[in-house]
Design brief:
single chain, 221 residues, alpha+beta, three-stranded antiparallel beta sheet, two-stranded antiparallel sheet, 7 strands, 19% strand
């Protein structure tokens, strides 16, 4: 129901209205990281007087209106939509004329607390683990014996907003041999899942331990 007692149409419900209705109570009873609180503040302030505004006017003077500024936060659906579309265009332009495989790599849940305390560092290690795992296995002649093309992007949360750091990778269905010629996947699949899981998890945990040993840059949760 809306504030005046009338039912709120579903096409009027936005992420901002959901946050307006429930965030304050939720934040009082949950320990939220600072980056979450900053993101919520931006989404709540977006296109409101909190961020100021500017005048949009017709040169002939037929129309004039005040337009509130956008937050431009990457998690804001209205602000991020155009950025996402532009990103997709750039990525599509990078695709090779071949089949591609979708591979998902999930960080071992045992590292979740370290992730929360060291988001930037752990994110970099996660990307490195995925990169190293794919190149190590696909360069093996038993699987492909060539260097693939990879586009990867990180997701931090599950669809139910549970912490679930993982990477979606788009991997070419083949690769470039050191001789320069193209080698296509011939087994009907990119890599055996159990082998990938074992190598990736071992690599991710090893990199986290090694980074902490060398630089001491990972804080304990």
């Amino acid at each position: 129901m809306s504030g005046d007692g009338h039912a709120l149409r579903t096409d009027q419900i936005t992420l901002q209205t959901i946050l307006q209705r429930g965030y304050e109570a939720y934040a009082r009873t949950h320990a939220l990281p600072d980056y979450v609180r900053r993101a919520v503040w931006a989404l709540l302030a977006c296109r409101t007087a909190l961020l100021g505004g500017h005048v949009q006017a017709c040169p002939e003077g037929h129309l004039e209106r005040i337009w509130y500024n956008s937050c431009r936060h990457r998690m804001c659906p209205p602000c991020a939509w155009l950025q996402i579309e532009r990103w997709l265009v750039r990525q599509k332009a990078r695709l090779l004329a071949c089949e591609h495989d979708h591979a998902i790599f999930t960080m071992p849940h045992a590292l979740n607390d370290l992730w929360l305390a060291n988001v930037a560092v752990m994110s970099g290690l996660l990307f490195a683990s995925v990169h190293d795992t794919l190149l190590e296995l696909l360069s093996d002649a038993n699987y492909l014996g060539a260097k693939p093309g990879i586009i990867a992007t990180r997701h931090t949360w599950s669809q139910t907003l549970i912490l679930h750091p993982h990477i979606h990778g788009l991997v070419t269905g083949g690769g470039r041999h050191e001789s320069g010629h193209w080698v296509a996947v011939s087994h009907g699949f990119l890599l055996p899942m159990r082998v990938v899981m074992a190598v990736f998890r071992s690599r991710d945990i090893h990199l986290a331990k090694e980074h902490h040993r060398v630089s001491g840059g990972i804080q304990a949760p």
